[in-house]
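Before our next group meeting I need something from you. Please put the record directly below this note.
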Amino acid sequence: MIKNKPLTTDLIGGKTLKTDEKINFFGEVDELSAFIMEFTHYTENDELNAKLIEIVKTLSQILAEVAGSKNKMSADSLSALLEWCSYYGEKAGAFKRFVLPGKTLKGAKAHVLRTVTRRCERAYANVYEKYGGSAFIFEYLNKLSTLFYHIARIYDENE
């Protein structure tokens, strides 16, 4: 172990401390992507799985943008997510009562996605505060947690 030398990692543009806000955000989003891909093995819904895979691809684009890539998250990705939120929100129906997270296995897994997404959003707030960033990324993460809430409700209230 090297004493008195900060641990760093490579990002686009140079080295960054492993304690940096960006590195924390990358870890949170990486965990979210892994949980999303795990969820695809439970949904038994090809249409939803295709959307989930698109979300993971968008999360990868967000990571690249935060790391310093010149490529930015597409406004089309946010538009698609908003459409999916509307669709699954209508499918879930009107909110009727307090939701007990995880009445079903699929509902529980969707609620984990929702809460991890919220953690990603908070981690991005720290990145944004220190480095600046994109309002699109904030909105995407916020609406993504809403999407997972709708999906969880569909599984918990309709199965």
Observations:
- The chain has a mean pLDDT of 92.
- The chain has one domain: 24-158.
